């Protein structure tokens, strides 16, 4: 096999993993509720693809090929005596009966999108609330436990263990993988919205295409639950954020220095329309407020810092978070003074591994002439990001103050 065919196979597999991982896992887990088994079988299918595709060529429908191979692996495991004896009798009997035809009605050439079903499954009350969103990020949206742990600023090993326990919980309690009724759906919605936003936030820096997937899920959720204001708020938030991504280049440029002419005016208009639809609520929710913040940025000829200060203050009262505190400190530096912004940062705890904290602190220190401290903070921020363009920018700023 030539290097070109190997590269083509690898690129096709990577593309399938980015765009179809969650759909495939959801389909494979639909009948058994065994997420770990679905993931293992799919991983085996990807391994087989990397061995087969360089010689045989990339199939016309890589996702369908992967589903078929993973489904066959799953069937073999169901039939194996080792698997039957390792599960409770009732479960083994059920799986043995279905083993001859599980997923046979699924057309590999027309794979549907069952990710929303699996998102709501992961938000089931039987799952520990603290692991629901990370579980969705890994199982449905395909993020590795290491990236999820970094987003939550916790050790990767601990996050991986909690995810394994959550999947075992779904299997052992026989939680059905199906769309819940409207009442249960509304009760689980907040966690699902958080996961979709997490997908967008984590993928923003890597520009790996998952941000577009997050937008698709957000818009789909809004259409599914049109009377829920926060679904439209999330759709608006992601849409308006992606409108600004249209002007991104390989070189990092701070938001307030970006050329607005490079932004996507059609996405801005769409996001603003979604934001208006979200205003049906008497009091705005978290995602509506964050969408309004993005709308201020998108509408600017000059940034309206007082408006941003009002919105972030409201956001902190409604949904306090480390990110919102850091953002308010940055905005306060413009509405009041860099020193006042630093005072806000100095009150924050558990921010040692939170990259935006160090980047914001570095910028404020530089603005008041504390160069040595600023350089150290810029270097710390650079070490905490996976975004190569952002790391280069932060290291340049560090060198300017050394």
UniProtKB/TrEMBL annotation:
<dbReference type="InterPro" id="IPR013325">
    <property type="entry name" value="RNA_pol_sigma_r2"/>
</dbReference>
<feature type="domain" description="RNA polymerase sigma-70 region 2">
    <location>
        <begin position="21"/>
        <end position="81"/>
    </location>
</feature>
<feature type="region of interest" description="Disordered">
    <location>
        <begin position="81"/>
        <end position="102"/>
    </location>
</feature>
<feature type="domain" description="DUF6596">
    <location>
        <begin position="188"/>
        <end position="278"/>
    </location>
</feature>
<dbReference type="InterPro" id="IPR007627">
    <property type="entry name" value="RNA_pol_sigma70_r2"/>
</dbReference>
<dbReference type="Pfam" id="PF20239">
    <property type="entry name" value="DUF6596"/>
</dbReference>
<dbReference type="Pfam" id="PF04542">
    <property type="entry name" value="Sigma70_r2"/>
</dbReference>
<protein>
    <submittedName>
        <fullName>RNA polymerase subunit sigma-70</fullName>
    </submittedName>
</protein>
<dbReference type="InterPro" id="IPR046531">
    <property type="entry name" value="DUF6596"/>
</dbReference>
<dbReference type="GO" id="GO:0006352">
    <property type="term" value="P:DNA-templated transcription initiation"/>
</dbReference>
<dbReference type="GO" id="GO:0003700">
    <property type="term" value="F:DNA-binding transcription factor activity"/>
</dbReference>
